[in-house]
Amino acid sequence: MKDHYQVLIVGGGSAGITVGAHLRNEEHPPDVGIIEPSEVHYYQPIWTLVGAGVFDREISKRQEADFIPEGADWIQEAAASFDPENNTVTTEDGTTIGYDYLVVAPGIQLDWDKIPGLKESVGQPGTGVVSNYTYETVPQTWTTLQQLEPGDKALFTQPSTPIKCGGAPQKIMYLTADHLRKEGILDEVSVEFFSPGTVVFGVTEFERTLKKVIDRYGIDFHIQEELVELRPDAHEAVFQVIGGDGAPSQKVVEYDMIHVTPPQSAPDFIKKSPLANDDGWVDVHKLTLQHNQYDNIFSLGDAAGTPNAKTGAAVRKQAPVVVENLLQLMREGAITEPKEYHGYSSCPLVTGYGKLVLAEFDYDNNPDPSFPFDTTQERYSMYALKAYGLPEMYWHGMLRGRA
Ligand SMILES: Cc1cc2nc3c(=O)[nH]c(=O)nc-3n(C[C@H](O)[C@H](O)[C@H](O)COP(=O)(O)OP(=O)(O)OC[C@H]3O[C@@H](n4cnc5c(N)ncnc54)[C@H](O)[C@@H]3O)c2cc1C
Questions:
Q1: Residue 36 beta carbon below 6 angstroms from any ligand 1 atom
Q2: Shortest CA distance to 106 belongs to which of 186, 176, 173, 164?
């Protein structure tokens, strides 16, 4: 390990590894250090299908060491603070590392503590409280949904904060409903969604299809209602009712199963750093992904302060933009022909076993399809892409800097 790198990357998840791999694939690659504390690397998008019993969770996990790009150094520490005036990052163990260029990609933070009663119950057998949002908790989703019986109530929630994969809270609900249909008890189990927003999905073209899916399964879709507390012993969920004419109020709903998408925010060490914008995210230009104050700093992925939907698909389009702009700056001293990211994101909305609507859109919520057919319809081909194609593309293409 050195004490200075030409390019230092904070975070070796989807974004950090992809950028590192692109850089190391260059003909004359810069020296690259990657600060990443975790021994393992997860392909998180597959957790939706793990929670629905399609795959075992092991399929999502690989050794981080196998994906550190050739020639890059892995600094197995957690970054703790930044000194952008002096071009250094200090890790939790007190090591200070210098850089010429910095790429910040530590992902998003799951704020389990923000909902009283959640942290101690989520993923624990017998509580009915489940979440696909971590490797540790995801198997309990499948165990719990198989135990649903006639007369039961299954709730699904979405927080008002930005989250990674905005469609994930709904996908597991559609899969649960489809499972109940296959078991012949869909009409006898109440399936309900609670969203603080006012729409089912932000892009009209896809919302139309999702509304039909919701009708097909007989789902109760509550808008402007947000989970604020769990009472695990009583199997009760407390919701803040935001809309309506009256003053905000609360309501208590009993459950047999509740899938919770936790509130999320920028990692604390980013929030309190000089790199953050007012909302805590890394303050970068939404087209060039270059920091608004420090020219030699870039950010992408879930931690970046760009107004796109936070997904791995967005990372795939952001990485070449960061790399191209960083290399221009490195070679020419300025970004003379900026490469731009226009907010592309993709949400593969699984609507049942073997059915998927591939929503792809940009910063303005305009559809941005990659396929020459009507992707607003449910298709098996798009389900197969998510279940079998995209994981292969991720491990063998994107993380190797080839896609
Ligand atoms: C249930 C679920 C379903 C999803 N479905 C989809 C989908 O269908 N399609 C899609 O495109 N995306 C999906 N996503 C989102 C996708 O996984 C993320 O958007 C993507 O992983 C973001 O990449 P990232 O590199 O910013 O963050 P991550 O991949 O989370 O990586 C962040 C890395 O930073 C490291 N880190 C954290 N703190 C520090 C620190 N202090 N110092 C150094 N390193 C640190 C972490 O250990 C981690 O390795 C889903 C996510 C979930 C949870």
A1: yes
A2: 164
Give the C-alpha separation, 203 to 189, whole Å.
29
346 Cα nearest atom in ligand 1: 11
Which residue, among 80, 179, 173, 183, has the nearest Cα to 132 in the 3D structure?
173
Q: Which of 8, 35, 164, 298 gets mutated to test ligand 1 (max ligand atoms within 8 A of its CB)?
A: 164
Q: How confident is the model at residue 244 (pLDDT cuts 50, 70, 90)?
A: low
Domains of the chain listed by start with CATH number: 4-108+266-338 (3.50.50.60), 110-264 (3.50.50.60)
Q: pTM here?
A: 0.97
**The ligand 1 atom nearest the CA atom of 18:** 25
Question: In this predicted model, what pLDDT tens digit does every residue of 49-93 receive, in sequence order?
Answer: 999 999 999 999 999 999 999 999 999 999 999 999 999 999 999
Point out the ligand 1 atom lying closest to the alpha carbon of residue 316: 11
Per the residue annotation, which of 186, 276, 319, 347 is the catalytic one?
347
Q: Which pLDDT tens digit goes with each residue over 161-218? A: 999 999 999 999 999 999 999 999 999 999 999 999 999 999 999 999 999 999 999 9
